Each structure stands twice: as C-alpha cells, then as structure tokens.
Amino acid sequence: MRRRPFPELPAGARLTRDPALVPLSQDHHHALVQSLRLRDAAAGGPGPAAEAARAFLDHWRNAMIGHFAEEQEVLFPAVEATLVEAVARLRGEHAEIAGLVARLEESLVAGSDPRDLLAEVGWLVHDHIRFEERVLFEAVQSRLGPTGLADLGRALAVHRAARGLAPGCATGGG
Fold first, then answer.
1. How many whole angstroms from its chain centre is CA 145?
2. For residue 53, what pLDDT is reported?
3. Is residue 169, in this structure, part of any structural domain at all?
4. Is pLDDT at 95 greater than 80 in this prediction?
5. Which domain holds residue 91?
6. DSSP letter assigned to residue 16
7. Cα-Cα-Cα-Cα dihedral of 13, 136, 55, 4, to 10°?
8. For the chain, how many structural domains are there in total?
9. Which pLDDT score is estimated for 174?
C-alpha cells in the first residue's frame, strides 16, 4: 500500500478554520475516526474486520458520498484555477477511494477477508484528509479572502441544505 505525502505540523501547532470550511473539517473528523477504525480492524481478525467494513460502508453512504460531492461541485471549482495540482490530486483520490469502496463491498458479498482492503482504504482516507486540511484548506483560506470565503460558505450551505443537513451540521456518523 502506498502512503500519500502530506506536511507534518510542528509540535503544538493548530490549524484555524474559516467558518466557511468548518463543516467540511467536522466531516473530516468523522472520516478520520472511521479511518482509524479500519486500520485497527485490519490488524485484527476477519470477524471484527467485516464489522468495521460494514460500519465504514454505512458512513460512506450516509456521509462521505455527499461530502465528496460538496468538494467536487462547490469547493474544487472555486479554487482549481490557482490550485491545479492539489485539486487534481484530490479528485484522483476521490475516484480511487470510491473504487476501493466498491472492492470492499464486493469482498464482503463474496465473504472474503477484507483486512488488506481495510488497511488500504484506511490509510488513503487518512492521508487524503490530512492533505486537504494542511494544504488545500490553508491555501483556500489565504487565496479566497473574506468575500470569497463568505461566498464559498454560502454555496456550501446551499449544497448541504439540499442534502438535508442543517446549517453548520456535520455529517456525523463517527
């Protein structure tokens, strides 16, 4: 399994999020919890691994698909002209994660041991989110400015409301 690079934070450093990006960061928290559960389950037996896989697939359907759509349809178009490489990487990883999820679903249906896939999905989700938070979101905040961030926040709120999420509501499911 190939790990993806993302910058490390200095000890004690904290990332500060503009309110426009807070709901996405909250979603990331829940996905990181799932990522850790997948990686832990990958180190255990097949029974707990299958249970973790099912929980992750529920989170995928209930939260991550919509979250990815918000990024693809609202966030990425707002910044891809100036953040070409970062957005291209993240779009590619979205497709890769979706492909791994499909393989994970097939593995469960077939009754196969999902542990190798759990580790792969878990690490990819982890590295993907760390890159989004530490590279993309930091660049978005510095490049869009207050007006652009406010516009982005409104567009994300409209998208989230269409998904049935209350304003400022994280997708949950952690």
1. 24
2. 95
3. no
4. yes
5. 22-162
6. -
7. -90
8. 1
9. 44
